[in-house]
Amino acid sequence: MATVAANREQETQPTGKAAGPCVMVLFGAAGDLTKRKLVPALFNLAKAKLLPRNFAVLGVSVDDLSLEQFRSQVTGFLPSEDHGIEAWEWFTERLYYERADFADPNTYSTLVDRLADIDRGRHTEGNYLFYLATAPKFFAPIVQQLGKAGLSNQENEHWRRVVIEKPFGHDVESAKALNREIKAVLQENQIYRIDHYLGKETVQNIMVFRFDNAIFEPIWNRRYIDHVQITNAETVGVEQRGGYFDTAGTLRDMVPNHMMQLLTLIAMESPISFHADGVRHEQAKVLHSIQPLDSEDVLHRSVRGQYGQGSADGEPVPGYRTEPGVSPESRTETFVALKLNIDNWRWAGVPFYLRTGKRLAKRHTEISIQFKRTPFELFRHAPHHQMQANTLVIQIQPVEGISLSFGAKIPGAVLRVGSVDMSFEYSRYFGADAYTGYEVLLYDCMIGDPTLFQRADMVEAGWTVVDPVLDVWKALPPRRFPNYAAGTWGPKEADELMERDQRQWRKIDS
Ligand code: BG6
Fold first, then answer.
1. Which of 195, 196, 230, 362 to mutate to test the pocket of ligand 1 (most atoms within 8 A of CB)?
2. 477 pLDDT higher than 50
3. Helices in 354-405 by DSSP H: which ranges?
4. Ligand 1 pocket: which residues have CB below 6 Å?
């Protein structure tokens, strides 16, 4: 991640340098991710002049598309009023397409020739960024074939990098096996395991907030913090992804990756530098400090749920078991709540509560840091005294911002105390953000900065946290699914998890 100090006037101006010459080879080029996120992000980079002058995208997929069809398919998602003719032409003429079967070795010899042609025409100097936006079963085979075809060799001063999408394995063993397979071909510094949560502005801002402000760090520990809540709530169901989702479930889909990113950024120590391994080392230490859950813990500290029919945005919606691609007897969870403890000096005794689910009451992702109450409640007899502890809320989406609640005197002759907020909203201060979140990640791959990507050990450590839960849940299938109605805040067991600790989930207005 390029660092640049900004003031209010200059903060939205592009400030980085354009990346060096390269071809981005996009496996899975006809897929959803390419259309919805990757191409719009590349186009935003083009408009910000952060793409290399000598650049091309080679889309690879099994679909039988002409170059024209490919160009219009992937650019169909770009907002037309926003094209900016010059950037538009510049970008679209750099899009190429190759129809290919990922499993066929001949594909890769064809790619060698195509890429050599593009290098000659576009002066891309043999630097290739392979982006695997494919089904996970292709990750290892593609990397192996790239190796056999000599496409992963970094020699004669050119670089070769591979971006791997999630899911990276489906448990700790499969993640280790995948790491072994790809590391048999690639060096660790050629591998970019992507987690799109790290592309979100507010997620990156957690580090700036914590480590560039002197006032928070002294209270960021067990002496002042009572507990932390991380909520990721979606209103969508499984949409067209029922087939994948029914084999994965929310625990695998969200927790070892996105939820762990949020947790590590909140819990990590200050890195000694803002270089990739400085940051990732501290994140990995947090993951290793999470107290392993034994079977008994899983029973008491984890909750799973599955939505039944209900509503979303005021409209009736079906239950999970009747979604396309989902088994009518499915026992797959669409909601998870977990209580985790971190065994280190900073966090001993401070629980981290996580909850994430689909078809919840509101789309909302936030981290709330709940501080301890005052040691002595001076105003406890005042009317309206809400006895609320201070809460710092980092809102990730859809609203991006930070707010701090504190007690204040309600105006009037009688002493009354209420809770008020100091709040910062990104869009009010910096203007609306048209970025997809992938811009920074793609740019970083091109400039070779892996700070915002997962190292092998981090991915494995994330799985290590959830593996015991997967095992116990598999051994004890849920008895009462579906157990929450679409459009609510999840099963009542999630509330009970908090109530057992005399706490409650922060109320999020629906
Ligand atoms: C993806 C999951 O990684 O993240 C999806 O596979 C989930 O199931 C999505 O909906 C959430 O991402 P965001 O950016 O919308 O919070």
1. 196
2. yes
3. none
4. 166, 234, 253, 365
